[in-house]
Amino acid sequence: MKNLLTVLVLCVACNTSWALTEDLNKIKLYSDDAVKNCATDEEKIMAIVNFVHNKIKANANPNITPSMKMTIVERLDLGVGWCNHQVEVCMYLAFAQGIRTRMLYLTNYEGTTSPHTIGEAWIGGRWVILDPQNNVNLRNSEGKLISLRDIQKDKFILKKAPLLKDREDAFFDMFLNPVMIVLELE
User: For the segment 8-18, what is each residue's pLDDT rounded down to a tens digit?
Assistant: First the structure.
């Protein structure tokens, strides 16, 4: 018998919900492949973020739109998804490794959602940022993965990240605003 999980996804920002039935055995296979050379949860989450960044792209299939509902396995098989889908895939792959995660919609100054979604993973006793779309390894001066609280204390921590240093200030400002937790897997 297949190991199936049905999750009710509630999208607070868009007032919609839908049930997805996931094949956890296939998700576990993808997850194990992504973390095959990793020993710690931190190594695993960074490998998962990198795996998803390389595997799932917004422009992978012009016939698939952002609003199409797909399972995690379908997204992995087809390799298509936007930032919110990439975070969701990361969450399930991390869940298969026993790592707690959550999805966050960043908000703009007006309090509405921004055009970017990130995730967080519970690593080392705190929530740290996952951004599979940008595939950045965000760390503070001590070499620890950073949290939203770290960014809110020092927004220039993002400007120091090699892949982000040339971004516009509006990109960094998204991380300074409150967030809306949409989905959490434990």
Answer: 333 334 333 33
Q: Strand 16-23 vs strand 179-185: parallel, antiparallel, or unpaired?
A: unpaired
* Dist. CA 33–CA 147, nearest whole Å: 27
Question: How distant is the alpha carbon of residue 164 from its chain centre?
Answer: 17
Residues 181/9, Cβ–Cβ less than 8 Å: no
Measuring CA to CA, which residue among 181, 185, 177, 178 is closest to residue 11?
Answer: 181
Which H or E element spans position 43? helix 41-55
DSSP secondary structure string for all residues of 111-141:
SSEEEEEEEEEEETTEEEEE-TTTT---B-T
DSSP result, 45-101: HHHHHHHHHHH-BTTS-TT--TT----HHHHHHHTB--HHHHHHHHHHHHHTTT--E
pLDDT tens per residue, range 77-97: 999 999 989 999 999 999 999
Residues 6+ apart with CB under 8 A from 111: 178
Model pTM greater than 0.85? no
DSSP 145: B
